[in-house]
Amino acid sequence: LGEGNVVKMVVIDQAYIQDKFIEYCKVNTRSDDQSKEVPTTPGQIELLKMIEQELGNLGLENISFSKKDSYLVGKLPGTVRDEKVTPIGFVAHVDTADFNAENIQPQVHHDYDGKDILLKEGRVLSTSEFPSLKKHLGETLITADGTTLLGADDKAGIAGLLGVSTWFPRDLTNYKLEKTKKNIRLYRRVE
């Protein structure tokens, strides 16, 4: 970018990721280990179709959904033209554990205070049972209501991948790419 230019780290839209995560958690994608089909339940196809629509909204190209094996693929067009860059693939799954997944009601706990989290039917996420909760003071936590699973594995991964897709710029003209052995950092020039 040249000497004297100010650069600013690009920020990911956390509200978008949270909204997509909550939306996707509400879809029942419970696995059925008795099914001979792939995917094993109609809810998994429903979620894949929702994600397919979102990939299109985000401007991804070559979006394809295979009815045979239920793979959904989209391509974010490359933006680096003047150097050889290795493509990166990201993978996530839509099926969730074989636990109750009917009427999932995600609960958002803003600015977590470090206390036990009270859920429905007298259930509690206790800090004595889950001491790592205290590491998340002041953060937003999302839980199930205690009557169902949340389905965070891997709906959090899906929402995160979509968030990265919204963040990654389509034109790198005003950006600086910094590569090290372990990381790639992208900075935007601020005029």
Query: Kindly, what is the distance between the CA atoms of the first and last residues, rounded to a whole number of angstroms?
Result: 11 Å
Largest sheet: 3 strands, antiparallel
Output the structural class. alpha+beta
Overall pLDDT level = 86
The residue ranges in which pLDDT falls below 50 over 5 or more consecutive positions are none
**Which assembly state applies to the chains in this document?**
single chain
User: What is the CA-atom radius of gyration, in angstroms?
Assistant: 20 Å
Sheet with most strands: strand arrangement: 1-9-8
Short description:
With 191 residues, the chain is α+β, with helices and mostly antiparallel strands. It has three helices and nine strands, in the order E-H-H-E-E-E-E-E-E-H-E-E.
What does this structure look like?
This protein is an alpha+beta fold. About 25% of the residues lie in helices and about 20% in strands. The chain has three helices and nine strands, in the order βααββββββαββ. It has a three-stranded antiparallel sheet, with no helix packed on it. Strands 2-3 form a two-stranded antiparallel ribbon. A hairpin with a 6-residue loop joins β2 (about 60-65) and β3. α1 (about 15-25) packs antiparallel against α3 (about 150-165). The protein is flat.
